[in-house]
Each structure stands twice: as structure tokens, then as C-alpha cells.
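Hey, does this match?
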Amino acid sequence: MLTMSEPPQQFRDMEMPDATFRPVDLSRARMHNVLLPGARLTGVVLQDAVIDGDIRGLVINGVEIGPLVEAELDRRYPDRALMRPADADGFRAAWSRLGELWDGTVERARALEERSPGALHENVDGEWSLVETLRHLVMATDAWIGRVLLGDPAPYHPLGVPFEEAQSLPGLPYAADARPALGEILEVREGRRSQVTSVLRDLTDERLAERTEPVEGAGWPPARDYPVREVLAVVVNEEWEHRLFAERDLAVLESRLVEAGGGVSDG
């Protein structure tokens, strides 16, 4: 029998594999970076819920949802199919298109910043600010291109933002209180984008089929060999997904500005 719960609780950094919940009220619960492989939910009431993440093999009422979601996302975003390149030319095409898309997003961000100084440091629904998103992409490039592909054991820029679970890992600098201006982080990011462009310029299909050499030392990703194709696919996916996040949050920030009468946000 369900009883009245105590004030909202937080569960962080916990491991509960094979746990059983019955019956449990999770109304309005917020879950972030939660692992649910092999989870089985039966007799659930799932209404007005939002699920965002790496979802594969999910069956709801006997229907596998993944292919339906993938088809709908491809319909909404015609460029999305480019982000699954099959060969070296495909990776070059994907990267070129990502550059064009990000240029448009940055232009939109600059326009918002002019109208509302500080807005690009605002968090929307607890997610990274736009500046933090750009800082994370610097870290992602350093990790997968600088460290894994190019063999630098410690390529990390001090303004990079690791994903949440890696922020305390040894060897990863993380200036949590840093508040760089948009122009400052864009300058760093331009160097990283040029680095990827250089790698892709010389990429061959043969190289895609190879594996990287393990790079020792503290940091992320862990020191082992990786398929080159997988490394580059991670970078493309990071760029694609985080631009969508940025566009989503820019829309929220812009709407807030309109609702406030176009005034300047305190950010």
C-alpha cells in the first residue's frame, strides 16, 4: 500500500543492480545519467513522461520502439543520416555539415548575448549552459582526438568540461567556477575543430578499419586501443547531439526574453 512520502529525496552515486520496486510512486521524479539496461517495467503508468538518451531494444506493449524513434528523428532532421558515415568521404561530409550547422547556432547565440548579456551562462532545466556545452565539446575533442587518436596522454584544455561522472577523475582538469566569455571559448573551440578537420583531410578507408595505439596515463578515455571508426563516430555524435541541445535551450532562453518584454536578463 502506498503511503505519503517524506520530502523529496536525492539518490546520487548509488549502485542498485537487480533492485525491485513494488509498489513505488515516482511521479515527477527526475533521473539523470541513470543506467537501466535489462530493466523490466510492468504494470506501469507512464503518462506525460520524457525519456532522452541512448535507447535501444526498448519494447512497449509488444512493440519495439527504437526503429520508430530513429525513423522519426531522421524525418525531423534530414541531416541526421549524414551523421552515420560509412567511409572516409562520409566522415568528411558529416564534419563539413556540422561546421555549417554550428556556425548558425553560434550566430544565434551571439544575437541572444547582445540582447541579454549573461544568458549564455544560464542553465535550462538543470542542463549545461550554452557556454558549458561548448566547453564540453572542447574536452570531448581533446579526449577522443588528442588523446586516443593522436596519442597525447594529457591534451586537455583547462576550460574543458568533462561529463559529470568524469569530473573527479585524476588527470582531467576541470575549472568548475570558470566563466569564460563566448568569444574566449569559441577561440579554443576553433583550434579543436581545425584539429579534427586536419585528421579527416588525411583519413582513408583503410585507416578507418584500424585500431588506435593505447595511450597510458590518467585521464579519459581509459588507456586501451579503440577502433578508429568508433573514435570518429563518437566525435561526430557529440557534435550533433550537443548542437541539438544548444538549439533547444536557446529557444527557451529566447522565449524567456520575449516574455520579459525583450529586456536584458540578469543571467
User: Anything to note?
Assistant: The first strand starts at residue 59 and ends at 60. The radius of gyration is 21 Å. The domain at 86-259 is CATH 1.20.120.450 (Four Helix Bundle (Hemerythrin (Met), subunit A)).
